[in-house]
């Protein structure tokens, strides 16, 4: 899966959607892409942090609970949870509740796609 992360105007966002719709209407094939766009470069920089990239890599290597991820990455549980919420909202990771004998249920975080993620970051200044 290719995920493009970039800054773009609202006009460019809708133009990209129209171009995809035209290709689909014509019955033409195109490579599925997930694009995460930001109007403001500062918002893009807040999103694509080293900590989030390390978290994504850890989840892709082995799905785990937030507590175990926090322990493994030497980060607070709250910061991991905050990053997971953002990554879940854009579809990079997902939660699954599994049985945890003697403790009820446990929330496991896993990657939404097993294929490698290629991040392309583009910004216009």
Provide a compact summary of the structure.
The chain is an alpha/beta fold and 125 residues long.
Number of strands: 6
- Succession of helices and strands: EHEHHEHHEEE
CATH superfamily: Winged helix-like DNA-binding domain superfamily/Winged helix DNA-binding domain
CATH topology: Arc Repressor Mutant, subunit A
Fold and architecture overview:
There is one protein chain. This protein is α/β, with parallel strands linked by helices and 125 residues long. It has one domain (2-122): Orthogonal Bundle (Arc Repressor Mutant, subunit A), CATH 1.10.10. The chain is 45% helix and 27% strand. The chain contains five helices and six strands. It has helices spanning 10-25, 41-47, 50-61, 66-73, 77-89, and strands at residues 2-7, 34-38, 64-65, 93-100, 104-111, 118-122. Strands 2-1-6 form a three-stranded parallel beta sheet. Strands 3-5-4 form a three-stranded antiparallel beta sheet. The longest helix is centred in the N-terminal third of the chain and has 16 residues, at 10-25. The radius of gyration is 17 Å and the shape is globular.
């Amino acid at each position: 899966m290719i995920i493009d992360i970039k800054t773009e105007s609202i006009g460019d966002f809708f133009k990209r959607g129209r171009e995809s719709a035209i290709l689909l209407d014509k019955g033409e094939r195109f490579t599925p892409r997930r694009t995460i766009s930001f109007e403001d470069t500062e918002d893009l920089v807040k999103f694509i942090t080293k900590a989030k990239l390390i978290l994504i890599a850890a989840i892709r290597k082995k799905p785990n609970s937030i507590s175990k991820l926090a322990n493994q990455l030497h980060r607070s549980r709250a910061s991991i949870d905050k990053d997971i919420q953002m990554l879940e909202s854009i579809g990079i990771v997902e939660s699954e509740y599994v049985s945890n004998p003697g403790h009820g249920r446990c929330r496991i975080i896993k990657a939404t796609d097993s294929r490698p993620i290629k991040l392309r970051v583009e910004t216009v200044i």
